[in-house]
Write a structure and sequence with these properties.
294 residues, alpha+beta, Antimicrobial Protein, Tachycitin, Chain A, 3-stranded antiparallel beta sheet, 17 strands, 23% strand, elongated
Length: 294
């Protein structure tokens, strides 16, 4: 039979256990942060120790740990789950700003999950930049806003790069069916390593104004001379048509002889004189006279 001291200890222990249960704490478990409001408990353990329904800070915007287009808005400690528009992802550059951005600008490698896509005509998602559906169409892509598309064409010689969302050289885009050779129908001649390091130039066989630069002697990139000039395959530089016999009439019907002469020998710009100078908007103005007092 237990003595008086043992019985007293058992009563104290039982009272402590009841007090802990009434306060919402179970033995061996703490609420996050060591206190605060009691949280609802569940017999099912959380899927991940990092998962929480509490705000990291009382106010701000915070990215979801797993889904790139999901984030949380916290106001006075109250959390609200939100989604970016389909095709956009959350930019967590600052907890003070609520900003959804294009995926090209955000690293989603650590939280790769996304909401279910909502495709429309030419748009794989409602918002963003998307390549043309046809594999061999390299220079066209779609810009989609709220499910409505606008087709854009890259500048001559460039192709759409799905990794960056902009137009780049074919060798940078690395898209199947859109290599430099596929796009330009031009293959760089074989040269020595030393010659290749000079990035040799070759005339475009179909256009006197353009030429190809072979990067390291292997990858062609198409470049052009300015209006009025043609590529000289002897000097490997842009030149005037009169110096390139096979291209002397290239601009015939496009530029007159007088226009070509004016491009080759532009008139010097008149210099301002007598203290008169040109203003930003092209007008002329005389500086204000000033005087110094002794």
């Amino acid at each position: 039979m237990a003595g008086p001291t043992t019985a007293l200890l058992l009563v104290i222990a039982a009272a402590a256990l009841l007090l802990g249960t009434a306060s919402g704490q179970s033995p061996g478990r703490r609420t996050p942060g060591g206190g605060g409001r009691p949280k609802a408990t569940s017999t099912t353990p959380p899927a991940d120790d990092d998962t929480t329904d509490e705000c990291p800070e009382p106010n701000g915007y915070f990215a979801d740990a797993y889904q790139c287009d999901k984030y949380y808005a916290c106001t006075d400690g109250v959390i609200d789950e939100r989604l970016c528009p389909d095709g956009m992802v959350f930019n967590d550059f600052s907890p003070q700003h609520e900003k959804c951005d294009l995926p090209f600008n955000i690293d989603c490698s650590q939280r790769p999950e996304l909401q279910e896509p909502q495709p429309t005509l030419h748009c794989r998602r409602k918002n963003g930049y998307f390549q043309h559906e046809e594999q061999n169409v390299c220079d066209k892509f779609y810009y989609c806003v709220d499910g409505k598309f606008n087709m854009i064409t890259c500048p001559d010689g460039l192709v759409y790069n799905e990794k960056t969302g902009i137009c780049t050289w074919p060798d940078e885009a690395k898209k199947k069916g859109c290599t430099s050779e596929d796009v330009f129908k031009f293959t760089c001649p074989k040269v020595s390593m030393a010659e290749g390091q000079q990035h040799p130039r070759y005339a475009d066989p179909d256009d006197c104004q353009f030429f190809y630069v072979c990067i390291n002697g292997e990858v062609p990139r198409r470049n052009g001379c300015k209006m009025g000039q043609v590529f000289n395959d002897v000097t490997h530089n842009c030149d005037w048509p009169r110096n390139v016999p096979e291209c002397k009439d290239w601009y015939k019907g496009i530029l007159t002889d007088e226009q070509l002469a004016a491009l080759e020998n532009p008139k010097p710009r008149p210099k301002a004189s007598d203290g008169v100078y040109k203003t930003r908007n092209g007008g002329r103005k005389r500086p204000a006279e000033t005087s110094e007092e002794a």
